[in-house]
Design brief:
It is built from ten helices and nine strands. It is of the alpha/beta class and about 280 residues long. The N terminus is likely disordered.
Length: about 280
């Protein structure tokens, strides 16, 4: 298994006349995963020596990435309803300290931003949007969990909890997290992961919510519009607050089904009600 999940993104800018020129800025990026300590940190820190080891571990990773000519890090900052930065809304992840709600003696996101910038690298906040934890994690978080604090916003589906995109207050809640993050930290961008309905979405328990808020619209269209509205709202706020902060997402690779390929399988548009094509317009 590779140590890092690599994401290479090249943006081609089209000129008004229609000629295609070389990219003005090329993003050479890595997703750096913090959930379960998959990339960083390898273990929680409960002592000063442990904290220094965590920090040195990240610095070594960044040095290798810089040497390999990477210029951007997508750092996972919101995992499953827990975060790696100072927040008055959601608990600190236990990944760094071993205990939910407790920081390891430093703020991992702030440290990562500083170290990325020292190396001339951008640091983008990788933000997992709707999943908020398996039953075990929710129980362990206790009263700190959004499931306990905001039960109206949450639905249990296949053993995992999710914020329900169809409940209007969900967008308010997500935006409050975004505001706290963008206002509080010198991030270069924010990337939204899982900004979609979950796997096996046909059985997602939102029929009553649909009847309450969108019964005049077909369920599939209503679900897509819930995501679209949230994307537009977040984007507009970020660009008003800090125009230089980039807003991105990692949608499913297949947009929709193609008639000549009847077994196209899992798609963004039909399976999880994402419409990234619309977002780009």
């Amino acid at each position: 298994m590779r140590k890092y999940c690599l994401l290479f993104l090249v943006f081609f800018l089209l000129q008004a006349i229609g000629a295609v020129e070389s990219p003005k800025h090329e993003i050479r990026a890595v997703w750096l995963t913090t959930i379960y300590g998959l990339d960083w940190p390898k273990k929680p820190a409960t002592t000063e020596a442990g904290r220094k080891a965590q920090q040195q571990e990240l610095c070594s990773m960044l040095d290798k990435l810089a040497d390999a000519n990477f210029n951007t890090v997508f750092l996972q900052v919101r995992l499953r309803g827990d975060v790696i930065y100072r927040s008055s809304i959601e608990p600190a992840s236990k990944t760094f300290s071993g205990k939910y709600g407790t920081m390891p003696g430093y703020y991992p996101l702030a440290f990562a931003i500083e170290e990325c910038h020292k190396r001339g690298m951008e640091c983008h906040a990788w933000f997992v949007t709707f999943p908020v934890g398996m039953d075990k994690a929710v129980k362990e978080q206790g009263k700190l969990s959004v499931v306990k604090r905001k039960p109206k916003l949450c639905k249990r589906h296949n053993g995992e909890w999710y914020l329900d995109p169809g409940v209007p207050e969900t967008a308010d809640y997500i935006l409050s997290l975004v505001k706290e993050l963008v206002n509080g930290y010198d991030i270069d961008g924010i990337q939204f992961d899982y900004i979609r309905y979950p796997e096996q979405a046909k059985t997602f328990p939102d029929k009553a919510v649909h009847q309450k808020y969108g019964k005049s619209t077909r369920l599939a269209d209503w679900r897509r519009e819930n995501i679209n509205k949230m994307v537009y709202r977040i984007y507009d706020w970020v660009k008003l607050a800090k125009p230089w902060v980039q807003v991105s997402s990692s949608p499913l690779g297949k947009y929709n089904r193609i008639e000549r390929v009847p077994n196209a399988g899992w798609t963004a548009y039909e399976s999880v009600f994402q419409d990234p094509k619309m977002w780009m317009e």
